[in-house]
Design goal:
mainly alpha, 79% helix, elongated, 6 helices
Length: 164
Amino acid sequence: MSLYEICQLIQDSEIGTAIRESQIVFPVIESFHVLGLAISAGVIVLLDLRLTGLGMGRVMPAHIMRRLKSLYMTGFGIMVVTGALLFWAEAEKLYRSPTFRWKLVFLVIAGLNAAYYEVKYVPTMDTWDGKKELPAGAKLAGWCSLISWAAVIGFGRWTAYGLK
């Protein structure tokens, strides 16, 4: 069985059909997906702007992460759950969508970048207090995150509105 056939089975399942054909359920799931995105990406952008030197210069990145990590992780969790449900409803359509594939590529890049930042820079963030310049790699990770999340959001919206 091919991946395309698996996507057809997922989409044509009872749950996939119920979500897709509901006048209430699909829009509610989609609304929570966008809300999770706004929470998660909004907080991540605050940290990224600080890392790149474009904003919040008086606030240390460690302070932002400690205060807001649970918030952006909650938003990300909401996005994952609702994204899976939206995929369930339209798996075959999304399989054929080049914009959805690009969204996934940039989502993987964003995830790898976050994991790298978490391992390489988070353990030393407390030592950055009082330093004018942050590590160059942390700045690069901030830029990579900003670009990746902008692409995830852009390709996600592009996919949602059926533009190819």
